[in-house]
Amino acid sequence: MSISPPRSGYTLPVFACASAIASLQHLHGENELNSVTFNLLEPPETVTIAIEQVARLNPDAALAITRSDPGDNLDLTRNTPIWALVERKTGNQEIEIQGGEGIGIQVDNGGKSAIYSYAQRLLQENLRPLLLPQESIKVTIILPEGKKLATRTSNAAFGVVEGLSLLGTTGISQPLSAPGQLEIFREQLKNLSRRFDRLVFCIGENGLDLAPQMGINPDILVKTANWIGPMLLEAQLQGISEILLFGYHGKLIKLAGGIFQTHHHLADGRREILTAYAAKMGLATPISSKFLTVAPAKTVWNICVN
Q1: 142 and 22 assigned to the same domain
Q2: Is residue 7's pLDDT more than 70?
Q3: Residue 185 lies in a domain
Q4: Structure confidence at residue 302 (pLDDT)
């Protein structure tokens, strides 16, 4: 059966980079900026990103705005604006990158902005060739809706608060949460079922990367994204005898509460599920009731051990 793949989009670092490029070009006197073209690096291909607005704030500062397009993903950042403020500065550092409002803070890393290596590299390598001789700039990435959107993510479980992260290792946003992707996952599972009767379901990229490091045969790994329920059903239909679920505990907690499509757009309930199981196991009410007032599951664990 031929399945048309869902449409891919781009990750947040790509739109941040596009806004920064447009701001810098506007500082250099380019006024007609409807789009910018640059290299994604990962993968090494050129893309053109639309610019929604750009304006000079003063002779040494400009601001540009793009809007996120993650493709056919069920992504909460869809259409969110990404601002980049570029300011000329003095000093030896050619390009200084910082997070503004809506960019998360890494609480376990000295309060640094959650702008990770791919985003840093993308900005540095695409902006540097555009600098004038002896020019230095400060780039501030702003997500006006970032703080609000972050409350609907698991960022706090990974030590990022007050906003979203510019993370990822690629500029392409794979449509793992689009309905069409489920059919592709099912086809992959069917193919594997002809060779193996035991499989490992990897819930997310972290699980997919970590499993081989722990000695799990990479040939039996199946990416499920958030489609855990439908994939479990498909595994039963294909006669798979044993499945190991491997991934982030937050999504596994949802399974314990009967939530089998684990995307945050559809359901959460992690704290409530933990509280219910704690009560069932006889944990004292003053302790279990604290679960409802804390955010990450790691904090719940700390409450239990202390």
Answers
A1: yes
A2: yes
A3: yes
A4: 62
